[in-house]
Design brief:
The complex is a heterodimer of chains A (416) and B (588).
Chain A lengths: L1 H13 L1 H6 L9 H13 L2 H5 L12 E4 L2 E4 L16 H10 L14 H4 L4 H11 L23 H9 L13 H13 L3 H4 L17 E4 L2 E3 L15 H10 L9 H9 L6 H12 L17 H14 L1 H4 L25 H9 L1 E2 L11 E2 L8 H11 L12 H15 L1
Antiparallel strand pairs in A: 1-2, 3-4, 5-6
Helix pairs in contact in A: 3-7, 5-7, 9-13, 11-13, 14-17, 16-18, 17-18
Chain B lengths: L2 E2 L3 E6 L3 H12 L4 E4 L7 H4 L8 H6 L12 E4 L7 E2 L33 H9 L17 H15 L7 E2 L2 E2 L23 H12 L5 E2 L9 E2 L5 E2 L21 H4 L1 H4 L5 E4 L2 E8 L6 E8 L4 E11 L3 H11 L22 E8 L14 E4 L18 E6 L20 H11 L3 E8 L8 E9 L5 E6 L4 H20 L4 E5 L42 E3 L14 H19 L10
The chains are: A mainly alpha (416), B alpha/beta (588).
């Protein structure tokens, strides 16, 4: 508060323009810039990674498992010794725009600079202005646990050459202002594609598969955001997208797993104008060719009736016999993109470990589903997952006992 | 030596229904509120997970959700010439321990009391004359009227998402509802539950004998619901596991399903579990509470200072705490003086088994799925020729078809064991139903609570002693209502019926109902009540008492609806009157 008051004092004495000219520190930035920064930090979902569970805000330390090894989020509080207190605005811009940190070394793309590169200089300035007001926390960053040669940050120069496209957002003038605002948020700060786009073997997003769904890791599969009916947003209206992002649930689905965190830490704080822009942009992502998936008839008849019986016994109380759930309360499994996603991981994960939906001011309840790991064995879970993913007109690939067993092992070891 | 903690604005003893409502209302008013609960924290997931919670052995037989007598119990005797002995097992009532309290394991049977119930003595004396009330019957007016409470009944019912059919909206009698109920401002938030086959038969039979049956109001949601706090509920699946169980589907109203999601995140609310409050501390004048003392499970003692102390524990525990703390003069049955412990009452129930020719499918059930008639409750009929006070409703509830403790009706003359019993059980399991009567119990000079002279609890405090028996007034009333139930049962065209009157002395051993009331009665006269009409202690104005312990006598309905309404009523008085000007809200 003191810093903000000082800023007003200075601005009052010397004229507002000075506030913008003073670099880096909070004293020199105006209240509205800091507030804008706060909004953008929410839009970028910074807290989900940079605030560890039970940790101080933005002090980092959250383990981010990647297929290559664990990376720990960093301290972005303004502590000079362990945070970004000594970073100039240009240092911060380099990180956001180019993935280069203050000492000139490369950041790993677990920090989503391939998306943040699109964020405007003014917005990066505001984000830094806000972060400078956060309570400084003295907390040393943990070293990454990547194997050689990935542990050598210079390797990322080559990765960047192959997969990183530096550059500010370029509006498409054939599209509306609203569409462009949505694109700026989705493709930039919102970094939706970081989860909702598949990556190649080197962890780079497959450009051709943009927003067609992606493996989040930890046995969560982020469903597609294209206009596909089955595993995309084709069946959702723009208003339903807005409601989902604002409140965590709509008549068709509810955010669970990592998306519940995104709603909790990020999208619920976005303005209706921005959420509508996001919805308009997402509704314009074209449908792709339907992926080849197993036909329901491919499922062994006995396995199918086992799955059906398990469903009736364990699931119908909330999700109803027809899989339609209860609008706004218990997510529909029928026609759900998360259920019919390319990989069966999300359904398997939730069945084994349970899930809790995001609690927001609009929908404070935070409904939860219990874990069934102790009750159902791997074979039963596989039968049930295959039933749920292919009943009521659903249509998706099959899982098996071994795949379930792997998810169970990881989930039980705290991977979920 | 107790560790002294930082003071809070309001400390709530217990964290069940009444504490949750008050916490929500008082934190909204800006107070720093702390609830202290002796049990553990519980929530729908993981504690009540559906397909796990439907376990009759674990929860109903092995008392999974109730208080443990090893920690706190009471002693009991039927009359003052006996020596009370401690209850080492749960018996005719089953109070809860844990966050949500009995709001977790109730059936969800939700009623409003009749307008005349609140002015019991005045009304009966006016209609039947002063002599109609037996001399040892100590019933009194509540100090609050139905009209006072109507908006708060409404608030409670919309909190819970009650499913039901209104019988009287603003004085207009509604077809299909209870025509005897007091006028309500509006109908229930949700339509009635779907009917079971047995309730349909009851409905037809009751009409045939000239009564006006109606669907019982249920805290089991017939449809998805969003309450005024924004908290959402699913819809009841009729799984048949309500009473003694928790709900795994977010469809039985409880603090967890209606309030906690908006209460728990508040910065000005906190709670402690596994902590038992042992005293309300008073200052040297004895007129002002300074806070409470509690003991955690490690046996450490803490002093929690507070500006306001509100007792929200189970009825008899509130009275126990008042007695231990020296709040209100203890009641003495010899002199009929003193107030704390006075006017303990209970409920009197009976049943009629009906054996039919068709499959009733008892498995499709819900705690408050029932059809009832109210012709013989309260003063809905002329008591003059009957010579007793009070009444009860008659209902057919389909609460489930659970095998161990529930579905046990076999016809008269069936052997108690062996092949004959098995055959009868097999023949009747699906083809029987039971009509219940649920009757009032008046308060009497010799029915009371005090501190036991012999037995002590785990904390070294004297146990609460309960002295109680049924009186002839109640036995007469119960027989009268049971006979009416038998009339309906016969009209259901059964193979046979079996009438189970409630006779003889009250026994604390078999389960009957957890509707214990009184001991901290409310009223207009400090000589006969512990709390005034706003549930504020006459003697210590910064102590309030919630729950059924304030009932001066127990009308013929389940108490929770009125407990909820009284809590909202008291919360409103606290917010709009007390906080502006702390001190007695009614001058003695």
């Amino acid at each position: 508060m003191r810093a903000i008051k000082l800023a007003f004092g200075l601005a009052g004495l010397l004229g507002l323009s000075l506030a913008v000219a003073v670099p880096a520190r909070a004293q020199g930035t105006t209240y509205s810039t800091i507030e804008r920064g706060r909004y953008l930090v929410n839009a970028g979902d910074c807290a989900s990674c940079h605030t560890a569970e039970g940790g101080k805000p933005y002090a980092g330390g959250l383990a981010v498992p990647t297929p290559f090894g664990t990376i720990y989020s960093t301290n972005i509080t303004p502590d000079p010794a362990t945070g970004i207190g000594k970073w100039s605005e240009q240092d911060f811009y380099n990180a956001m725009h180019d993935g280069i940190r203050r000492d000139g070394k490369h950041l790993y793309p677990a920090f989503p600079y391939p998306w943040f590169t699109k964020v405007s200089r003014a917005d990066v300035h505001a984000i830094k202005a806000f972060l400078d007001t956060v309570t400084p926390v003295r907390q040393q960053n943990k070293p990454t646990e990547l194997p050689w040669p990935l542990s050598v940050r210079e390797v990322m120069a080559g990765w960047n050459k192959l997969y990183f496209h530096e550059g500010a957002f370029k509006p498409d003038h054939k599209k509306s202002e609203q569409w462009n605002r949505g694109a700026y948020l989705v493709e930039g700060l919102g970094h939706c594609g970081a989860c909702h786009t598949d990556t190649n073997l080197l962890g780079a997003p497959k450009t051709a598969d943009k927003l067609k769904g992606g493996d989040f890791g930890e046995h969560w599969y982020a469903p597609g955001l294209t206009s596909n009916l089955r595993d995309g947003l084709g069946g959702w209206s723009a208003a339903e997208i807005v409601e989902y992002l604002k409140t965590g649930a709509n008549a068709k689905s509810a955010a669970g797993g990592p998306m519940a965190e995104v709603v909790k830490n990020s999208t619920q704080y976005l303005s209706d104008v921005d959420l509508n822009a996001i919805a308009v942009y997402l509704k314009d992502v074209p449908a792709e060719q339907a992926r080849a998936a197993a036909k329901t008839t491919d499922i062994d008849k006995q396995a199918w009736s086992r799955g059906e019986a398990l469903y009736v016994d364990n699931c119908t109380g909330c999700h109803m016999e027809n899989g339609a759930g209860v609008a706004q309360i218990f997510p529909s499994l029928k026609g759900s993109s998360a259920v019919q996603a390319k990989l069966p991981d999300t359904v398997t994960h939730i069945l084994l470990a349970g899930a809790k939906t995001a609690a927001t001011p609009g929908k404070p309840t935070g409904f939860a589903m219990p874990a069934f790991a102790r009750k159902l064995d791997d074979k039963e879970v596989a039968d049930l997952v295959n039933y749920i993913r292919n009943a009521w007109g659903n249509h998706s690939s099959l899982t098996n006992q071994n795949a379930v067993s792997k998810v169970r092992k990881d989930v039980e070891h705290g991977g979920g | 030596m107790a560790t002294r903690l930082k003071s809070v604005d309001a400390v709530l003893v217990g964290f069940g229904w009444t504490a949750s409502i008050l916490a929500q209302e008082l934190t909204d008013a800006g107070l720093q509120v702390l609830a202290i609960e002796r049990g553990k924290f519980r929530d729908t997931v993981p504690d009540f997970a559906t397909t796990h919670i439907q376990d009759e052995l674990k929860y109903a037989v092995r008392n999974g959700l109730f208080e443990e007598p090893a920690r706190e119990t009471l002693t009991f005797r039927n009359s003052t010439d006996q020596t009370a002995l401690p209850m080492r097992h749960l018996g005719s009532f089953r109070p809860a321990a844990g966050v949500g309290g009995a709001g977790i394991h109730w059936n969800g049977q939700n009623w409003r009391f009749l307008p005349t119930d609140f002015k019991a003595r005045t009304h009966i004396e006016q209609r039947y004359g002063r002599k109609f009330i037996p001399e040892d019957m100590t019933i009194q007016d509540w100090g609050v009227s139905y009209d006072d409470l109507e908006p708060y009944y409404d608030q409670w019912e919309y909190l819970c998402g009650i499913s039901g059919q209104a019988g009287n909206v603003q004085g207009r009698i509604q077809p299909g509802g209870n025509p005897f109920e007091g006028p309500r401002a509006r109908g229930y938030p949700l339509p009635p539950l779907k009917r079971s086959y047995a309730t349909v038969l009851f409905d037809e039979a009751a009409k045939q004998v000239g009564f006006k049956p109606f669907p019982c109001a249920a805290a089991n949601t017939s449809q998805p619901y969003k309450n005024p706090y924004g908290v959402q509920m699913g819809q009841c699946t009729y799984c048949g596991y309500c009473e003694w169980f928790a709900c795994g589907n977010y469809s039985k109203s409880s603090p967890q399903t209606t309030i906690l999601p908006v209460l728990l995140p508040k910065d000005n609310f906190s709670y402690r579990t596994n902590c038992e409050v042992t005293r309300v501390n008073l200052d040297s004048t004895g007129k002002r509470a300074t806070g409470v003392t509690y003991v955690d499970v490690q046996g450490r003692e803490f002093e929690q200072p507070a500006e306001l102390v509100i007792l929200c524990a189970y009825a008899q525990h509130n009275v126990h705490l008042l007695l231990l703390s020296g709040i209100g003069r203890p009641y003495d049955p010899k002199t009929n003086e003193g107030v704390t412990g006075r006017n303990y009452a209970y409920q009197i129930t009976s049943s009629v088994n009906v054996f039919l020719n068709e499959n009733m499918n008892p498995f499709m059930g819900a705690g408050a799925l029932g059809q009832a008639v109210d012709e013989f409750n309260g003063d809905n009929f002329d008591h003059g020729p009957q010579g007793f006070v009070g009444g009860g409703y008659i209902a057919l509830w389909t609460t489930g078809g659970r095998p161990i403790l529930q579905q046990h009706g076999v016809p008269e003359g069936t052997p108690k064991w062996g092949a004959g019993w098995k055959k009868a059980m097999h023949e009747n399991y699906l083809k029987s139903a039971s009509l219940a009567t649920h009757g009032s119990v008046m308060s009497y000079r010799d029915s009371y609570l005090d501190l036991d002279p012999t037995y002590r609890d785990a904390y070294g405090n004297p146990l609460l002693r309960l002295t109680f028996d049924f009186h002839d007034n109640e036995r007469k009333m119960s027989k009268f209502v049971t006979d009416k139930a038998a009339l309906i049962a016969k009209a259901m065209k059964p193979r046979s019926i079996k009438v189970n009157y409630r006779e003889g002395h009250y026994s604390i051993l078999p389960y009957e109902t957890t509707h214990n009331t009184g001991g901290a009665a409310m009223g207009n006269d400090p000589k006969t009540s512990v709390v005034n009409r706003y549930l504020q202690c006459w003697d210590v104005s910064n102590v309030f008492v919630m729950g059924a312990s304030v009932f001066p006598q127990n009308p013929g309905y389940n108490p929770t609806g009125t407990v909820g309404a009284l809590t909202y009523w008291a919360a409103d008085a606290l917010r709009t009157k007390y906080l502006k000007n702390p001190g007695p809200l009614v001058q003695a």
